[in-house]
Amino acid sequence: MTTSTRGTAKVPAVLVLEDGRIFRGRAYGAVGETFGEAVFSTGMTGYQETLTDPSYDRQIVVATAPQIGNTGWNDEDDESRRIWVSGYVVRDPARVPSNWRATRSLDEELVDQGVVGISGIDTRALTRHLRERGSMRAGIFSGEAIAAEAELIERVQAQPHMKGASLYEEVATQEAYVVPAIGEKKFTVAAVDLGIKGMTPHRMAERGIEVHVLPATATVDDVYAVDPDGVFFSNGPGDPATADGPVALMRAVLERKTPLFGICFGNQILGRALGFGTYKLKYGHRGINQPVQDRTTGKVEITAHNHGFAVDAPLDKVSETPFGRAEVSHVCLNDNVVEGLQLLDQPAFSVQYHPEAAAGPHDAAYLFDRFVSLMEGQRA
Ligand SMILES: NC(=O)CC[C@H](N)C(=O)O
C-alpha cells in the first residue's frame, strides 16, 4: 500500500531522550511538542485502555507491539474521561482500522485530544535502550517544533523527573459520585480516587457493591459518611513517596479495622502506611503478560501491570507493623518485585498490579472476591 489516510504521516518528528539519544520518525496524532517520562508497555492489545489510564499521566508510552491502531477507537473501552499519556510512540500505525465497535481511528482520536505522537520508530531498539539505561525523560517534537538537537536535548533535561512527582490530585475526580451495584446491593465501599480506572468500580459493582468514588482529598469523615463496609484505594500516577495525605487517611482506616483493599498506587500507600519504603524501578512493569505468584496459595497468574515504583518490604519474613503482622502476599516471578501485601491481624490487603484487567487476562479477578469475603467476615 502506498497511500495513507493519515493526515500527518508525512510530517517529520523526532523523539529526544534525556541522555542525548535521538530517534527520527513521522508525526502521529497531533503535531507539536510534548514531554514526559519515556516508558515501554509490552501489551499486544488494549491500547485504548492504556492511553486512557490516569496512571500514565506525564508519561510518553512506547508500544512494543509493532502494529498499533488496528481496531480503531470505540465508545466503550475508555478507562477515564480522556487520554492521559503525554505522548505515544509506535512503529507501524494501522492504515485501515477494522473492528465492529470502532467509531473512529486511533490517529483521529489522538488529533482530537491534542496528543502528540510519533510513528516509524524502531521500538525494539528504543525499548532495549530504556531497559538498559532505565526509563528517562523525553520529548517528541514534530513539524515546526523541530529545532537544533542540542537545544531539544537541553529542553528535555529541563523537565521535572517522575521521582518526586505528585500527580494524583490533578487526575482524580473533584466531585464524589456513585457507581451503583449491579443487581442486589450487598455492600457499600468508599473508593478513594487517586486516578481510578473505570473498570475497577465496575468489577466491584458486578459483585453487588455500591461504590462511592471520593476525591483524592477526601477526609476520614467523608469516608465514614457513606457508612462503608470496606474502603478501597485506587491506582494513580506519580511517586507514592509524595502521597502523604492518602497515607494518613489509610492509617485512619486501618486504625478502625475497616476491610481495606488497594490496587497499584493503593498498594504503595498501604506499604507506606505500614512503615515500608517505596523506590523507583529501573524501567518498571507495563503490559498484560506479567507472571505473579500468589504466595498464599502458590498459584501463578498472568496479570496486567503498570507501575514504575514498588514497595520495599522483606519477602521472606513476617513484618511487625503498627497495624499488626504483615507479609508480602504476591511477588513478580520475573524480578521478585513485591506485588502484594496482606495484614495478618486485620482485614486489609493490596496488590501492585491490575486485577480489573482492562485490558488483560482475568486470572486475578479472585482478588475482588477476596475483598467481598473480608467484608462478609466483618459482618459475621
Ligand atoms: N498504576 C499505578 O497505580 C501506578 C502507581 C505509581 N504511579 C507507579 O508508577 O508505580
Instruction: Give the averaged pLDDT, no decimals.
Output: 96
What is bound: which ligands? Answer: glutamine
Strand fraction equals 25-35%
What are the low-pLDDT stretches, counting only 5+ consecutive residues below 50? 1-5
CATH superfamily of the largest domain: Class I glutamine amidotransferase (GATase) domain
CATH fold-type name of the largest domain: Rossmann fold
Return the domain count: 2
SSE diagram, text form:
Blueprint: E1 12-17, E2 22-29, E3 33-41, H1 47-51, E4 59-63, E5 67-68, E6 73-74, E7 87-89, E8 92-93, E9 102-104, H2 106-112, E10 116-119, H3 123-133, E11 136-142, H4 149-157, H5 168-171, E12 177-179, E13 187-192, H6 199-205, E14 209-214, H7 220-225, E15 230-233, H8 244-255, E16 260-263, H9 265-274, E17 277-294, E18 300-312, E19 319-321, E20 324-332, E21 338-343, E22 348-351, H10 366-379
Helix pairs in contact: 8-9
The structure holds glutamine.
The site of glutamine has 12 residues, from strand 18.
